[in-house]
Amino acid sequence: MLLVLLSFSCKKNEDVEPPKPFNFRTVQVNGQSLTTTNFRNLGLTPTITVSFSAPVQKENVANHIKLTQGTTSVPLQIAFSGGDTLLTITPQNPLNPLTSYSFTVLPALTSQQGALFSSTLNLDLTTAPDNTDKFPRISDEALLDLVQKQTFKYFWDFGHPVSGLARERDASGDVVTSGGTGFGIMAIVTAINRQFISRADGLARSLKIANFLKNNAKRYHGAFPHWLNGATGATVPFSAKDDGADLVETSYLMQGLLTARQYFNSPTNADEIAFRQVVNELWDGVEWNWFTKNGAETNLYWHWSPNYNWDMNLPIRGWNEALITYVLAASSNKSAIAKTVYDNSWAQNGKMANGNSYYDIKLPLGPAYGGPLFFSQYSFLGINPHDLKDAYADYWAQNTAHSLINYTYCKTNPKQFNGYSADCWGLTASDQQDGYSARDPNNDNGTIAPTAALAAMPFTPTESMQALRFFYYKLGDKIWKQYGFVDAFNLTTIWFANSFLAIDQGPIIVMIENQRSGLLWNLFMSCPEVKKGMKNLGFQSPNLN
Questions:
Q1: How distant is the alpha carbon of residue 232 from its chain centre?
Q2: 337 and 281 in contact (C-beta within 8 Å)?
Q3: DSSP string of 350-395?
Q4: In the prediction, which pLDDT does 457 show?
Q5: What string of H, E and C letters represents the secondary structure of 451-466?
Q6: Is residue 356 classed exposed, middle or buried when 0-12, 13-18 and 19+ CB atoms within 10 A define those classes?
Q7: Other residues' Cβ atoms within 10 Å of the Cβ of residue 59
């Protein structure tokens, strides 16, 4: 009898099958299959479907399939189908916009046969912006007025109390910027023209700035440092060896001063006459040709230091933001460079050419995809690129192509960053979540800077206006503050800067105005020195006649 029982028991154990392996087969979020663990730009009621290799133990599901935001669990609705192998999961309530969530299937989930889930399934989900308007709708013209006026406050309300110069950023204290001040002076001219301030008040601030630059600010062979102390005029080193002249930043400053000189043109107003005299003294004081290492080379150099001489050794070569430096260096009354310096150093005898197409858009100059958008903006606050050509490019075609490539890249969104679209675009230099750096299609981390799209307004008026509406109406609760739009944001990491920078706020005001009226272009291009200098470099344009 014992032998019979043992034999039966062994046979029974042999007939019991072990649980089948328990894994997932497919995962979809809103119908999109699992090719990445990051799903971005989702609506507020996403649908997650998971197909398992075996029927799921229903009673086990609630504790082992989770959607969380930080440490908070989101209540879920779970529907079963396909013999309990297919789960359709949705949040019970709409999710929060612009929020990161984690979806997890825990290893303790079991099949109906008792097998444990043998895989790890973790998804990162990021919701899209809330599509509701944050402010009442107004006309596009009224919106442009509002953006220019609010952004102007950075230079007017936040200008340094002693010197009037533009602070580098909203947290820089006494540190002011020479180039950003040039942008700010052009913003003052715009504000007078738009009747945000009176001509008398704008002139008083401009004269204050000019007199401080003449009487207090440190200069090196007539050129200014990148940063100064706004109370004393002393140099504030930009980096270890950058403690002297910065010729490119000086160019941005002179671009603004010459524009304002042309604007304050009264033959009888004593203060306007005084302003023009100071500007001319500052302008004629820059020894442009000295920055060819005192004539030793046919290259124009960016920096010179009284302590480190030419050690930084950075020739100013195109294509980038520094065309204005060569234009002004060729336009000087007293120390103009020769055309050979432009051809050899800036154009590198044609090596700055590109000629390739990106998204079927041909780019005449510069790096692949054009580089950050400030390349086509800083110099063209004053230089009018309409019908402007030389031996190397058509500059309207260059700047339009650069802007459209940047726009199309963001619209195409090859890296699937959250929020990128025809409404939300613009890569340039700006604050980032981990510091300050320049972004472009070849160096993109999901950070959008409003200045990029808005300062491209003359080149992409429809696309830039579309971005402006989105920034204001849809993201305004996040990025519209006391001095206009904050410097940057990242909808993938859900980060919003709380900073404002002079070199980013200025181009917004100025380039919107150039699109609306051509004011700053007309003023700068009316300078007789500029007409002569640009012609000497080989530029052709009706604006130079």
A1: 32
A2: no
A3: GTTB---EETTEE--BSSGGG-SGGGGTSGGGTS--TT-B-SS-BH
A4: 98
A5: HHHHCCCCCCHHHHHH
A6: exposed
A7: 9
Helix-, strand-, coil-residue percentages of the chain, each rounded to 5: 40, 20, 45
Strands ordered across the beta sheet of 175-177: 175-177, 227-229, 235-236
Q: How far is CA 269 from CA 6, 91, 191, 209, 491, in A?
A: 119, 69, 20, 18, 51
**How many other C-beta atoms lie within 10 A of the C-beta of residue 436?**
13
What is the pTM assigned to this prediction?
A: 0.92
What pLDDT is recorded for position 21?
73
Is the alpha carbon torsion for 337, 342, 346, 348 positive or negative? negative
Q: At what angle do helices 247-263 and 270-285 cross, to 10 degrees?
A: 150
- In the DSSP assignment, the letter for residue 345 is I
Angstrom distance (rounded) from CA 378 to CA 395? 14
In this structure, what token pair is assigned to residue 253? Answer: 């400053």
Q: If you count them, how many residues does the chain have? A: 545
Written as one letter, the residue type at 11 is: K
Residue pair 153/143 in contact (Cβ under 8 Å)? The answer is no
- Distance between CA 437 and CA 345 in Å, rounded? 25
For tokens 């972004």, what's the residue? Answer: 439
Q: Structure tokens of 269?
A: 């107003």
**Domains in the chain: ranges and CATH:** 24-111+120-127 (2.60.40.3710), 140-544 (1.50.10.140)
How confident is the model at residue 4, as a pLDDT? 43
Q: Fill in the amino acid letter for 24.
A: F
E-assigned strand segments in 100-213: 100-105, 121-127, 175-177
Contacts 24+ apart (CB under 8 A), 92-97: 94/44, 94/45, 95/42, 95/44, 95/45, 95/46, 95/69, 95/127, 96/44, 96/69, 96/127, 97/44, 97/127, 97/128, 97/129, 97/130
**Contact, 382 vs 255, CB < 8 A?**
yes
Residue 93: CB atoms within 10 A of its CB come to 11
The residues pairing with 76 across neighbouring beta strands, listed in sequence order, are: 91
Q: Is 271 helix (H, G, I), strand (E, B) or coil?
A: helix
CB atoms within 10 A of CB 388: 23
The one-character DSSP state at 344 is I
Helix axes of 502-516 and 178-193: crossing angle, nearest 10 degrees: 40
Helix pair angle (270-285, 199-215), 10° resolution: 40
Distance CA 540, CA 525 (A): 12
> What does pLDDT average to in each consecutive run of 10 residues of the chain (545 residues)?
45 60 89 81 94 93 94 96 96 95 94 88 92 97 98 98 97 96 98 98 98 98 98 97 98 99 98 98 98 95 98 98 98 98 97 98 98 98 98 98 98 95 98 97 98 98 98 97 98 96 98 98 98 98 96
